[in-house]
């Protein structure tokens, strides 16, 4: 889940998005319902009944708690739902949809796009795009790559399917921008002469795909989710320490930018826990004390950015939304 803040003396954003008017702050809250899919594709718990049960908690109890919190503060968020979660927990995901939240793409089993062939990526995108279109009655507009691991081909696939924004990369941390894709760089190879790898980054091509930045430092999962193989804290970080980081990040952006996005990434596995719900409530109340701050969806942020910022000349543009639905299943 993502919270966007917009700071407005106009507007700032959080990935629940929050937006500020006059000098603006927008918050957007992005919520990733990884649930069981996260353990299948990324966290290393596919052989653990206990870890799978924690995924079930996320899709049921955690999701219900987050929905209640959003209702309490009248917040609409963007929920990125893997196809596995949509098919495994249809009633819980219908509650998200029926509460008026935006739903976006997040793979099927939280698989790593960078580990797959182009054809595998295309098949998964086609299936999940059709799933969400049928579930919501309209095509999705945004996507998040599982683990924020965007593949070399991923941007073109999103353009082919008419996606309007992505939330997987980090060229900035509080401003939307148009995605550039196809950058290349030389890896260091100590077995070869340095002249073979002392090369600069080569920039790729511009696109009309809006990038709403991903930011590991305002993501709940790395510091606060217990994962047996995690190399640092194993998920045992005091939420008040995380709260300090998020509050300081917001306070800096509010002071330094007339307009910014604050894209918080949340997971019901983590943010559905009592101690983290209380952290969110304290932070939301802090954010809302500031003039011009509002919570908006990522779709809103993308649309607003495009209205005020034309894409670069010659940029590769998204296909017409829904045009792929007329093609046969892959």
TrEMBL record:
Instruction: Name the domain of life.
Output: Eukaryota
Which residue range or ranges hold the NodB homology domain?
Answer: 48-253
Q: Which Gene3D superfamilies match?
A: Glycoside hydrolase/deacetylase
What positions belong to coiled-coil segments? none
Q: What processes in GO biological process is this protein linked to?
A: carbohydrate metabolic process
UniProt-annotated stretches for the region Disordered: 309-330
One GO MF annotation is: hydrolase activity, acting on carbon-nitrogen (but not peptide) bonds
What is the protein name for this chain? NodB homology domain-containing protein
At the highest ranks, the source species' classification is: Eukaryota, Fungi, Dikarya, Ascomycota, Pezizomycotina
């Amino acid at each position: 889940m993502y919270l966007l803040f917009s700071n407005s003396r106009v507007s700032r954003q959080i990935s629940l998005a929050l937006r500020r008017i006059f000098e603006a702050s927008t918050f957007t809250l992005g919520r990733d319902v990884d649930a069981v899919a996260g353990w299948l594709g990324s966290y290393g718990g596919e052989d653990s009944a206990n870890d799978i049960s924690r995924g079930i908690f996320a899709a049921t109890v955690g999701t219900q708690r987050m929905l209640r919190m959003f209702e309490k503060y009248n917040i609409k968020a963007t929920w990125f739902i893997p196809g596995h979660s949509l098919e495994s927990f249809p009633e819980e995901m219908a509650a998200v949809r029926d509460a008026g939240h935006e739903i976006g793409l997040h793979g099927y089993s939280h698989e790593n796009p960078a580990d797959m062939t182009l054809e595998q990526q295309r098949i998964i995108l086609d299936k999940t795009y059709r799933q969400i279109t049928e579930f919501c009655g309209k095509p999705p507009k945004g996507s998040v790559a599982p683990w924020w691991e965007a593949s070399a081909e991923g941007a073109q696939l999103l353009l082919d399917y008419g996606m309007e924004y992505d939330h997987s990369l980090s060229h900035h941390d509080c401003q939307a921008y148009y995605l550039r894709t196809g950058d290349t760089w030389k890896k260091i190879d100590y077995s070869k002469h340095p002249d073979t790898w002392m090369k600069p980054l080569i920039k790729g091509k511009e696109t009309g795909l809006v990038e709403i930045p991903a930011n590991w430092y305002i993501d709940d999962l790395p510091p606060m989710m217990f994962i047996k193989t995690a190399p640092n804290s194993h998920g045992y970080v005091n939420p008040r320490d995380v709260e300090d980081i998020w509050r300081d990040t917001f306070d800096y952006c509010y002071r330094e930018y007339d307009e910014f996005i604050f894209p918080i990434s949340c997971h019901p596995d983590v943010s559905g826990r009592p101690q983290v719900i209380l952290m969110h409530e304290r932070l939301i109340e802090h954010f809302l004390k500031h003039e011009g701050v509002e919570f908006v969806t990522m779709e809103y942020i993308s649309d607003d950015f495009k209205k005020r910022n034309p894409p670069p000349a010659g940029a590769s543009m998204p296909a017409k939304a829904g045009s792929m639905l007329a093609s046969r299943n892959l």
